[in-house]
Amino acid sequence: MTRLAIIDSGGANIASLQFAIDRLGVSSTLTTDAQVLRAATHVILPGVGAAADCMSRLRQAGLVETIRTLTQPLLGICVGMQLLFESSEEGDTVCLGLLPGRVRRFAGRAGFPVPHIGWNQLEFDAANAGNPLLAGLNSGDHMYFVHSYAAPPGPVTLARTTYGEPFSALVQQGNVQGAQFHPERSARNGACLLGNFLRL
Amino acid sequence: MLAKRIIPCLDVRDGQVVKGVRFRDHVVVGGILELAQRYRDEGADELVFYDITASPQDRSVDRSWVRRVARILDIPFCVAGGIRSVADAEQVLGEGAEKISINSPALQNPDLIGALSARFGAQCVVIGIDSQTLDGEYYVYQFTGDPERTRNTARRTLDWVREVQARGAGEIVLNCMASDGVRTGYDIEQLTAVRQLCSVPLIASGGAGAPEHFAAVFEQAGVDGALAASVFHSGTIAIPDLKRALAARNIEVRP
Fold it and tell me: pTM for the full model?
């Protein structure tokens, strides 16, 4: 039985994530209680707003060590994914350090307005197509993005997206995964990704 | 590649979706949830709900429907109208909206843009601009939901576009009032002028009447999205047909 805990990171749009989970027929608990997180089968770390704000909320709630030591499947979404890395250029923030690397601001190239807002495509190699997180998805599928910072592609990248430059759209290492896009607002493809995560 | 966004706009008045011509003479076109569901299923990339009565009547948008919409929609949506404070925005976003769009309140209190951007991030903060040409210059208009109160703010549109970005706007919707509702095409010239000053995403609004108008505004003005209301509500343009037409011209769209 899936027991999903959503970390109440104080972001304003957690409701839309909860509704997306409801639509999958899974019940979820919004919490900052370390015990509830540890007892969950799956944990989602959502995030909207500035990385430094989100990190300081996690610190105030005393959750940094709890999140760092979770062993069940963990999914960071948007800023929640960025927090999984070692640090972010946004406000020069020290993050959770679960994944290697530093999150950087988009360069702001001509023809590529920042924030990157809208539906963009996942790109992944056939070698990754068998990954359970990508079940039912194809390279080229669109997901909905809204962000100004991103993690450069690296060893934990499962799928890339290109916006003037390639960046990590989906990452995975051990029990930790992150989505730079918003699966809760990515129509059928997003629901597919969330369902895949909940089956891990 | 990033897809160009097709964005139906649902003008909400007293809990119903309405449509007027040149911002006047509104008629009811349907229920909020019914239209939201229809556009979701037809492949709209995003929806905007605009409470056109909120600012002129100096009251806040009735937000009870935001949560109901958020429950059924799996695409992003933006709520506009009567958001005057960080607390107003917090409520709307907390109910499940992706973004908030500010128009008249930003003109009255430009500091609000920075406050919202600092609290929620620039990506949540859309600035709506109603613009009209007067003696060869573009000017920003205010309170356009109510013909009796609509007025020229004496601000030049291009100046305001620069200012809102400097203050932390994450996206701009430019509504060219002369074209609104008359279906003769987007104001390519004005949108091109604004695009050149715009380092954040720009959404075109006002004038869509045919698929060629969408193609023209993407190809010629380089906007990121195109917003329309009456052509979608009336069924004159079906979104799947529109997207096929755009794709046939090599314009990137989400299938």
Answer: 0.93
